[in-house]
Amino acid sequence: MGVNDEPTAAPPRATPAGTAAAPVGAAAHGGVVPPATLPADHLSGRPTPTGEELHASHPAPTFVALRRWVLSNAVQLRTLRGDLRKQIAASSSSAVGPLGDVPEKVVLVASELATNALAHGRPPTQVRLAQDGTTFLLEVSDGAVDRHPFLAEGRAPGDGGFGLQIARRLSLDVGWYADSEGKHVWATFCATDDA
């Protein structure tokens, strides 16, 4: 049974980029606005006032569900982390080979995404783990379909908001979609990946 067994709505469409007003200080450059710099990791999502919007996309439909957790508060994150480590170890076979740091990457990203969902989303917060061969899919969902995930930029260390940046750095791929159950943010991790 796959993670996305039920029919899902198409992911929200990105709004086409419009013409933006010249930023403050453009007059200092003779009315010409210098080219914008690319965001971290050369992402190409839509800019927001506080970062870069994450692209809407679905994970591959080939993943098989392993386990689901429903969280109502941050205290449950400790249990989630331990359960994720155990589930990944139990789901790995000798064919997968050594897991390396995959369990720790999954646990860290799950903690970040679940914390975001608990703090900024609406109940229920759910965490799902699925597998397709040597690749694990982590999916965190909440009921706030109107709040699109974005990659925080321009914040000082310690100000928070870097969960998706961490997910992008530690996983193979990151995306999100919305359906009748809520907003889902997902990341994939490969047990044979040396990165």
From TrEMBL:
Q: Where is the Histidine kinase/HSP90-like ATPase domain?
A: 85-188
For region Disordered, the annotated ranges are 1-56
Low complexity bias: start-end ranges:
15-35
Keywords, ordered alphabetically: ATP-binding, Kinase, Nucleotide-binding, Serine/threonine-protein kinase, Transferase
Gene3D superfamilies reported in the protein's UniProt record: Histidine kinase-like ATPase, C-terminal domain (3.30.565.10)
Q: Which CDD domains match?
A: HATPase_RsbW-like
Q: Name one GO molecular function term.
A: protein serine/threonine kinase activity
Q: Which InterPro entries match?
A: Anti-sigma-factor_SerPK (IPR050267), HATPase_C_sf (IPR036890), HATPase_dom (IPR003594)
Pfam families (alphabetical): HATPase_c_2
Query: Where do the TM regions start and end?
Result: none
- Kindly provide the name given to this protein in its UniProt entry: ATP-binding protein
